[in-house]
Amino acid sequence: MMNIYEKNFLDIASKLDAMIEACGKITKCANKIVDTRDEEEIKNMVNKISEISSNENSGREIKSFVKALNDCLLEYCGYYYVKSVCDSDNEDYGDERSLAELMDELNKLIGLVNVKQQVNDLIAFQSVQRIRNEHGLNSVKRTLHMAFTGNPGTGKTTVARIVGHVYKQLGLLSKGHFVEVSRTDLIAGYQGQTALKVKKVIERAKGGVLFIDEAYSITENDHSDSYGRECLTELTKALEDYREDLVVIVAGYTEPMKVFFQSNPGLQSRFNTFIEFSDYSADELTSILESICEKNDYHLSAELKDEIKEYFVYEVEHKGDHFANGRLARNIYDDLVMNHAKRVVLIQNPTDEELSLLVPEDFEYNFEPESDV
Asked: Of the candidates 151, 22, 169, which has an alpha carbon nearest to the alpha carbon of residue 101?
């Protein structure tokens, strides 16, 4: 659920974007900050604010909105900084939904048929082992650590969060919270400090899920190879020492992840669940886009849905190594909403239908579908 800081930040960004006709650049940057809290995106937003503010052509109203956006950005970043400090000391804020509700959320995810089947099988196994233990029968112990492989935007982070909450409900984790880190959170700038940095992250994650995205980046940089080895040594030790109350999920592109597991002899043996996340189909991408729209009180016209479906078919057939999957649907949604706003703002007293209906005019992606001939 979106909190007040996110809502205010995104609302002001969208209004300023439309006011100065920035073609969605400010809105996209704001959405990326909310989705990832990436430091580079925050710097980009600060630069945009500075540029607009210093522009001599910016009128009083624009400068008023620029100041409001700057204040909202500071409030948003401040909120998450304070939250991260408090959470590092007390991260017992896991999802309180029942096991049935969590499983329902997992099974309602669009696509991911193979992923959902594997996770359901794994949860069934752990559930039965818990019952056997309650009956005084011997229960099979197996590591809970997992590896998620596949392209970006395929739901790996979403599934990892659900797994943490489910394991909390099964009594396998004491908290079920979720800690996501990348290479910069694990590797220090000089020898000897990386181990301390990894230990700090492990302490934060104990009782929940530690999610390491693009895990192969730990070892792929030749210039920091010794730091990468130091990180993996400490991480491999933690995988064994805290396996009773910690789930580590490593994720990334399929081929680089194979190299990652070969980089440390004891690493792969700590994982016995490997799940491949396939790319979404055109139908699934269309459903994802419709779902995003519905959650935000928008809907696609029949004509627009057909046009977007045709575009997704083209993208799926011509995708490269960096095919965006679900992120492509999210980016299209952002553009649709911005174009819709620029169109509807010119309508006097728009109706509810006009405020929520997205039409082909709002879709500006150019592509050349192959001829049927």
From this structure: 169
CA 249 to mean position of chain CA atoms: 14
The pLDDT tens digits for 174-227 are 988 999 998 888 887 666 788 888 998 999 999 999 999 989 988 766 544 677
368 Cβ partners below 8 Å, 6+ apart?
314
Q: Which one has a higher pLDDT value, 272 or 277?
A: 277
* Residue 139 half-sphere exposure toward CB, CA atoms < 13 A: 16
Give every CB contact of residue 360 below 8 A, 6+ residues apart in sequence. Answer: 301, 303, 304, 307
* Cβ atoms of 39 and 81 closer than 8 Å: no
Where would I find the H helices in 263-364?
Answer: 282-295, 302-317, 326-344, 352-356
pTM (two decimals): 0.70
Nearest to 247 by CA among 90, 119, 83: 119
Neighbouring-strand partners of residue 274:
147
Amino acid 69 reads L
